[in-house]
Q: What sequence folds into this?
């Protein structure tokens, strides 16, 4: 099982994501970002977080430690927002905590000098995302953090937010038909680093064995797998994940991403999109300045 901790203090909700995670302190003296079972995304988002995050860790990628976080809504009695209180009251029991990386900053795809990423490392990240159908790591939504790794001050990439991956588990009845499905990764956050997905595939595909997958899915709490239609219980659901991901790893030639636009091509495409949006605006809106401050490509 995942290491367990118990929330002792609810600090603040994070409204940047639709799931409204929160920062908490725990009885192990650690500080965590917690994703709650009562969020609109539900338990399957937490299942995806565990499976993809822990698989990535075992394949050598950097993922903040994940823990099973026991949460009593009473520790957040002072939270003033009613919608957040509703979320927390619906999340009593086990939730998912992710170690808070102090001082970490969001990775921005346009700044290729922020962190050193080799083509092989970029390829490994893209390969994991392609294996697990994680389409939520784009230039507009990187879901990557920059933080020094253990034992060095040099900034490194850390992978976060995998709740949107494993899209097949939302439709188990059609999952088998998607084992070889290719996804569009042309706007992947690391496309500008020339991902060497062929080398990554040669390295990682043989390592995604049924034994490794059973180790990973065994970390998912039974409560998050119970009641899945078409399965006799949590262990049967786990075998469903094992069978699907093992088959997809064996069939990597069918879905392996190979072609990525250069950074200037992505910028040009973004500029074309902005121009088309501007052209479609009514005349009176064309004179309203853009005050968002957002760069053309993120």
A:
């Amino acid at each position: 099982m995942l290491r367990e901790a118990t929330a002792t203090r609810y600090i603040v909700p994070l409204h940047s994501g639709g799931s409204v995670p929160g920062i908490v302190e725990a009885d192990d003296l650690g500080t965590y970002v917690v994703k709650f079972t009562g969020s609109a995304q539900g338990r399957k988002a937490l299942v995806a977080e565990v499976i993809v995050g822990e698989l990535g860790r075992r394949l050598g990628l950097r993922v903040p430690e994940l823990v099973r976080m026991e949460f009593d809504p009473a520790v957040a009695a002072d939270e003033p927002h009613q919608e957040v209180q509703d979320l927390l009251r619906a999340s009593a029991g086990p939730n998912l905590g992710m170690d808070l990386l102090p001082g970490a900053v969001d990775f921005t795809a346009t700044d290729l000098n922020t962190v050193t990423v080799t083509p092989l490392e970029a390829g490994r990240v893209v390969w994991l995302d392609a294996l697990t159908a994680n389409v939520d790591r784009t230039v507009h939504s990187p879901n990557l953090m920059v933080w020094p790794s253990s034992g060095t001050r040099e900034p490194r990439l850390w992978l976060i937010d995998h709740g949107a991956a494993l899209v097949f588990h939302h439709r188990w009845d059609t999952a088998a038909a998607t084992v070889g499905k290719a996804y569009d990764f042309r706007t992947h956050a690391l496309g500008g680093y020339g991902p060497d997905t062929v080398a990554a595939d040669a390295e990682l595909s043989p390592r995604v064995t049924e034994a490794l997958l059973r180790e990973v899915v065994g970390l998912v709490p039974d409560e998050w797998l119970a009641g899945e239609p078409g399965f006799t219980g949590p262990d049967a659901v786990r075998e469903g994940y094992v069978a699907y991901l093992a088959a997809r790893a064996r069939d990597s030639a069918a879905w392996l991403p190979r072609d990525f636009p250069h950074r200037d091509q992505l910028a040009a495409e973004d500029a074309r999109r902005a121009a088309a949006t501007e052209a479609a605006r009514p005349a009176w809106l064309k004179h309203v300045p853009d005050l968002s401050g957002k760069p053309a490509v993120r």
